[in-house]
Amino acid sequence: MKRRLPRTLAQALFVLWAAYTVSFAVLYLLPGDPVTIMAAGGGDASSVSPEQIAELRARYGLDRPVPEQYATALWNAVRGDLGTSVHGGQPVTRLIADALPATLQLAGATLLLALPLGGAVALLGTYTRRRWLRQLLLSLPAAGVSAPTFWVGLLLVQLVSFRWGLLPAFGNDGWSSLVLPSVTLALPAAGLVAQVFAKSLRTALAEPYIDTARAKGAGRARVHLRHAARNALAPPLTVAGVLTGGVLAGSVVVETVFARTGVGRLTATAVTTQDIPVVQGLVVLGACVYVTTHLVVDLLHPLLDPRIAATERPAVTT
Amino acid sequence: MTELTTPPRTRAATPEDPATAKPAAPRPGTPSRARRALAFWLGRPGLLLSAALLALVLLAALFPALLTSRDPLAGIPGERLLPPGADHPFGTDQLGRDLYARVVHGSALTLRATGLAVAVGLVAGSLVGLLAGYLGGRADDALMRLADVLLAVPGLLLSLALVTALGFGTVEVAVAVGVTSVAMFARIMRTEVQRVARTPYVEAARAAGVRWYTVLLRHVLPNAAAPVLVYAAVDFGAVVLQVSSLSFLGYGARPPQPEWGALVASGRDYLAPAWWLTTLPGLTIAATVLAANRIARALDGEARETP
């Protein structure tokens, strides 16, 4: 890993830079003048006077040539300044930092629910000999992946909050308000984990070393957990890395449904009011999350599978 | 656990497969083929149901008048918020509009947006993948790094950024969602093109002096298209979800227009008094996505996937 780390870090920095550049290109260079869009704020563009537009243009430096704009913006971004919101005027980094804790709680709770649930469904589904249970368990993940999150969230609110009056439906105060949103996000995430894990478990169970383990007299549970599951862990781990980004994106929908504050809500508001600097900052945040989780997954892989670490070790020194 | 001891089957269950033809058809003839097709479908009730449901949704999108005679936009003031019943199978909304008619008419908008999004991803992604895989070298590197970056930003976030730049509306949402799947299409196409480009017949065509773009379009593309088309089917369900999520958030169809995600969003204000306003359109989306995913799985190789 030590040898690979600099290259992985360089790749991570490249992805961040490229994500910034692509979002800059998309948001500032596409047809549709960003200043008019921003000044109108998602409303009617004709209500903005030419003086206002000129004033905005000068304030955001959009009257200068594009390469210069890009260079200034990138230099500011490197120093941690992602610009200011068009509507509130607050720095984008401040807005994101304020919204982040609530969403991190949500993401953490979601992953804590989704990973054990998905893992358990896949393990039990491939382990059981009862045909009906097997078919039921292995068709559940497909249903979890197919249900729209906004709909699942509203169903939960309807049943748990309104009909049974058990948990608060909206807002984010305390742990009780975290349950329904995280369950909503965890169901599709668990479905994805279960699908991938079940598939890799089936592949692992068909390997010759499983026959060897059985021939040596290892019990079914032991073969399943010690031999098959351990070797089948790599694909679901990779998917879990992707899921973290997916949870961030899913929070846009879920925080709207449950009227929570957080990064998702900030995204929805920024898109609705076409607040371009904030949207760009959020895209960069998404890329950051992706890059970080990939680094973690990369570091975890050799721990799970010693073969990966073995191939990386320089042969001369050992 | 019996299937673990048997040797791995390779698509044994598909009706065209000659392996299954021998036991099923003792004498050659046409009826055996039909019987095999029948056995294939009857052995998979879920797949049959999925195909029927998708056909119904397609029918609703193309000829909504066949499924309902009511106007999705005209409300009857005396029939506000009626629960589902014989007269209104899905109930009525706060303006007295028939929800079933709105869902039926809404399928056209949702499916059109989904089709457009998949088409954008398929065409743009295939083109990128074709060029990257065939040209190789620097062009390959540049195009694939770009695809990596598109994959690095979570899909919904990327399409939200695009919607911010493009503006709101069904077409804009469809394009934005389509762009997010370009990278996957490009990757799949590139891998396949690299495989095909090494085959002897492509080498022969090049040796015979055929121009490079003719080789690409006549020899490489037709032989490399299958995996991308399968992925288009796989992508379909996810795109329905993304399109309806964006219109749920309010960036798609404008309010009076019925669209599945927008229907759920407008029912949100009547969650406690009228459960059907959110539940039934949402159920339609979930069922459609489930059906599309089931069919995609069948196309992707039935025998390997089923437990």
UniProtKB/TrEMBL annotation, chain A:
Residues 100-301 form the ABC transmembrane type-1 domain. Belongs to the binding-protein-dependent transport system permease family. PANTHER family: DIPEPTIDE TRANSPORT SYSTEM PERMEASE PROTEIN DPPB-RELATED. It holds the Pfam family BPD_transp_1_N. It is a multi-pass membrane protein. This is Peptide ABC transporter permease. It comes from the Bacteria. The chain crosses the membrane at residues 12-30, 104-124, 136-158, 178-198. The lineage of its organism: Bacteria, Bacillati, Actinomycetota, Actinomycetes, Kitasatosporales. Keywords: Cell membrane, Membrane, Transmembrane, Transmembrane helix, Transport. InterPro entries: BPD_transp_1_N (IPR045621), MetI-like (IPR000515), MetI-like_sf (IPR035906). The keyword Transport applies. The keyword Cell membrane applies. It is found in: Cell membrane. SUPFAM superfamilies: MetI-like (SSF161098). It comes from Streptomyces hydrogenans.
Automatic annotation (TrEMBL), chain B:
It comes from the Bacteria. The keyword Endoplasmic reticulum does not apply. The keyword Transport applies. Keywords: Cell membrane, Membrane, Transmembrane, Transmembrane helix, Transport. This is ABC transporter permease. It is a multi-pass membrane protein. Residues 1-31 are annotated as: Disordered. It is found in: Cell membrane. Belongs to the binding-protein-dependent transport system permease family. Residues 1-21 have a biased composition (Low complexity). The chain crosses the membrane at residues 46-67, 116-137, 149-167, 173-189, 228-253, 273-292. Residues 107-296 form the ABC transmembrane type-1 domain. Its main location: membrane.
